[in-house]
Amino acid sequence: MGPFLPKLQRCINKFQKSLLNIEIRQTYYSIKKLQKEQSTLRLSISLVVPDAIADNFFASQDRFFLNNVALTTIITKRKYDRLLTSTAQHCDPTKFLTNTKAIHNATEKVLPPETVILLSLGPKFALPYKSLNEIPFSHIIADLENVIVSEDDRLTRERIRCSAVNIVQNFIHRFADKQLDMLSRFLIHACNVTRRFIKSNSDVIIVESDKGKQTVVMYEKDYDDKMQEMLSDKKTYLAIKANPTWGHQKTNNSLVSRLQNLALIDAKTAYRLKTTTAQCPRIYGLPKVHKPNMPLRPVVSNIGAPSYMLSKYVGQIIQASIKSDFNIKDSFSFCSYINSIRSPEDYVLVSFDVTSLFTSIPTYMIPGIIINRWQDIKQNTDINLDLFLEIIDFCLNGSYFSYKGKFFRQIHGTAMGNPLSPTIADLVMESLLENVARKIYFPVPVLKKYVDDLILALPPDRVTDVLNIFNSFNNNIQFTIELEKDRKIPFLDMVLIRQTDQTIRTEWYSKPMASGRLLDFHSCHPLHLKMNTIANFIQRVRQFTTNSPKEAANITINELLRRNHYPAALRHRLLNGNIRNTERNTRNSSDDGGTVVYKPMLFVNDLTQRLSKALKAAFPNITLASRYGNTASRIFTNMKDTIPPEMRHNVIYRIPCNDCEASYVGLTTTQLKKRISSHRSTINEMERLRGKNDDDPSTQFDLERLKGFPDEGAIYTETLVKERY
Asked: N or C: which end of the chain has fewer CB within 10 A?
């Protein structure tokens, strides 16, 4: 009996599935039969009852039916979620598979095993909350208010607030009585071990890699040396003495005011493009672990920069004018295109790649390209050419940033992080390809680009000539080349395979440096989000694999899911299509046809789901987008310059009194430095008035509590409000 037990189990499973299929068919048969009987009854009632009475009766029955369907759907979904969750109950949560490709240790330090496991999960891995004190209820309340204030009726707002308070209070009681499971205890222990390791090794930093979703552990000195070496390139960067943010902010607002005065933009757009709280952009580097000596890719964080919104605005205008025959929309459209191609005999596939595209683009050539394309660009804007070029020049040549308190200006190329840079790069590449296409005198059946990656089908003896034509466009923009090997060449996330009949087939491809990290099953994300992520991944792999049978793709998918801790039973159900995408397509419209508005909501398991349900009933057109505050990214090192407290905005601040325990608490949406300056001006004015009217008791001011102004560096600040309502 023993050797045949697996076969017996398979027979039992097959029999159970057959019975289930019969039951499903029987249910469908019963539904169709009842629908026919319902139609007959409706007709009979309509013949003997007045139309008004019949319509009211049918409407009441329809409402009763829809309510029952909604209730049954909720109950069924709960059962479905419990079934999916139960597939992991037989797994030992502490037996994590160590993904060695997901972590790169560039130090001589020996990492604790718990640290290796935690860091290999990535910065987006959502961790459990250890206690109620760790849950940021203030952020949850702020997110709730962001939704509730959209309701005009005051009584409705108060009713929703009361309901939310009850939900939060019940959650607190449940959480206090809840025991952490084995998985949560292990993850919390791993966090503690990792924090102790970082504290005892202060010379070590933890950052993300440039590509491949790897976690890099390296010495801070090595990072700083690489950054300093990069910034010492005087052809690209120039050190400046002072922070130019205020001057750039003034220029930005002046340009926007000119646009508004000329009636080229409305007041609402002008308000969006102006800024009074601009921050200096900050540079940081991402290690290129796939290259020798692990150089850094510079990235400038431009969010909050003086020209950020204006750059975004003109970038959208230019992007709308680009109608390209070379561009690839996404991998799916390219897969459909390339699988329909048959190249001429003896043609081979080659790929070209620009070396550091953004920093290679000379800014002096951009005005000429815009002038040549102005007929297309002006269709999307009323701004005249001279003013448009002035704005472009300001947005591109005003690239500056700070590193460790020092300020630099980028004098060559466009900055990574500037929202205008990708559009300008696309515009330059489009002009380059048009120039090259005019110089090639033989047919090129395949010539497509995705940002700076190109794929071409060329005669083997013409590859060098074409490369020279590309490199002759501009001395700063140079290309590297990769030839097909064994009739195969990687491009995007697939391998192109040239068949013997010159047709092209594809297979899903992962680069050698890729970690294979997906949304881990043990991450504290909603279950439906994990299922949708994996369902989309499976669809991607299968659609890109046209050269191999489905079984080969399933082997690849199964291995990646296993490495991301998805249980065997769940993997089997996913691969066999028994679990489909559970999220409805509500991107453009809601159930009642209205426009969907997305609002952020901090995700806390068992709390956010209940709040979402309560809010959904009151706001059917609002969809909550979960955000996650307690992720592994908190362990990673922030390599950007810290914004000084006095330069922050949207903050709550407290100023203690020097003579008593009282404090002044305020909220400011402007920079704290300006607000404090305003307080000081008010105090000085009050002091002046008091001095003039010192003999008049009716004008005495009690300034004792306002004399406790500390220096700006000692101001207590706490960022509690991140959105303006």
From this structure: N
Query: Helix count (H) and strand count (E) of the chain?
Result: 22, 20
Average pLDDT over residues 667-688: 80
153 DSSP β-pair partners: none
In terms of pLDDT, which residue wins out, 590 or 97? Answer: 97
Closest by alpha carbon to 150, among 720, 634, 688, 597? Answer: 597
At position 47, the amino acid (one-letter code) is L
Of residues 607, 597, 606, the one with CA closest to residue 149:
597
CB atoms within 10 A of CB 669: 12
Domain boundaries, given as residue ranges, for the chain: 2-86, 237-508, 645-718
CA distance 420 to 71: 49
Amino acid in the structure at residue 296:
L
Cβ atoms of residues 444 and 337 within 8 Å: no
566: which 2 tokens? Answer: 């998805």
DSSP symbols for 9-48: HHHHHHHHHHHHHHHHHHHHHHHHHHHHHHHHHHHHHHHH
Percent pLDDT > 90 in the chain is 33
How much is the pTM?
Answer: 0.78
Residue type, 436: V
CA atoms of 171 and 605, how far apart (whole Å): 10
How far is Cα 188 from Cα 161, in angstroms, rounded to an integer?
33
Mind listing the pLDDT tens digit for each residue in 142-164? 889 888 888 888 888 899 999 99
In angstroms, rounded to a whole number, what is the distance separating the alpha carbons of residues 627 and 722? 13
What are the structure tokens assigned to 239, written together?
Answer: 């050190």
CB 603 within 8 A of CB 626: yes
Of the candidates 370, 396, 371, 243, which has an alpha carbon nearest to the alpha carbon of residue 310?
Answer: 396
- Cα Rg of the chain, angstroms: 31
CA distance 479 to 476: 10
Supply 622's token pair.
């609002």
Q: Tokens in use for 278?
A: 């601009």
Tens of pLDDT, residues 633-666: 999 999 998 888 778 888 777 777 766 777 777 8
Q: What is the DSSP string of 332-395?
A: HHHHHHHTT-BPPTT-EEEEEEESSHHHHS-GGGHHHHHHHTHHHHGGG----HHHHHHHHHHH
Type of residue found at 653: Y
Q: State which amino acid sits at residue 433.
A: L
Instruction: Measure the CA–CA gap between 722 and 601, rounded to whole angstroms.
Output: 12
Residue 293 carries which DSSP code? T
One-letter amino acid identity for 355?
T
| Listed residue (683, 676, 626) closest to 651, CA to CA | 676
